[in-house]
Design a protein that fits this description.
By secondary structure, the protein is an all-beta fold. It contains no helices and 23 strands.
Length: 202
């Protein structure tokens, strides 16, 4: 706990908790068991950051209560736990890419300068953009998607556009909110049923 927190690699056999504006310079691992929670704004620095709580327990959650910024990659793997990001990602400095894996994933707006991937049942509460101007990154979902708000998916860049993929039959889309998908000249693939439980846009 502190006004600001600045850390390198941390590996624990249990939970990790950071209370304050936190700069991450290396990976965080609680792979034996335990949740990782960052309470306060997070900044990605120095290198691509990987955070893992893949100990096999449903309580091995990864939680960010605020914003995440920084021009580095971000990988979150909660295994059987959940991923929750309550603040905007890339509002002031876009990560180069984001890969999230968990039993459930709950996010607000995420803006990257490269690919985004979501593996797990995902609730979207804001827009997702991989459009960095000259090019965009692919946007991929592996698992059911629920719209918690009106959502725009944008991979339409000024130069090279990128695909948007809802992969396989499990990648259904539900929620009585609107969904706008803009891949420009790239492909869009819907592998699952849309509105089978709750009609989209209803």
């Amino acid at each position: 706990t502190g006004n600001t927190i600045n850390v390198k690699a941390i590996n624990t056999a249990g939970l990790q908790s950071y209370n304050g504006a936190t700069t991450l310079n290396d990976n965080l691992n609680a792979n034996a068991a335990g949740a990782i929670t960052v309470t306060g704004a997070a900044n990605l620095a120095t290198k691509a950051i990987e955070i893992a709580t893949n100990g096999g327990l449903a309580t091995d959650d990864i939680t960010f209560t605020s914003t995440i910024n920084g021009a580095e990659g971000l990988t979150l793997n909660a295994g059987a736990g959940d991923v929750l990001i309550s603040g905007i990602v890339g509002g002031t400095a876009r990560p180069t890419g984001v890969a999230l894996t968990g039993n459930t994933i709950n996010v607000k707006a995420i803006n990257t300068a490269g690919l985004q991937s979501y593996t797990g049942a995902t609730t979207l509460n804001g827009d997702l953009s991989t459009d960095a101007g000259a090019s965009a990154g692919t946007l991929t979902f592996n698992g059911a998607v629920t719209l918690g708000n009106n959502v725009i998916l944008d991979t339409n860049a000024a130069g090279l556009d990128a695909a948007i993929n809802f992969s396989g039959g499990t990648s259904t889309i539900n929620g009585n909110k609107t969904l706008t998908v803009d891949a420009g000249g790239a492909n869009v693939t819907f592998g699952g049923v849309i509105g089978g439980v709750n009609r989209v846009g209803a």
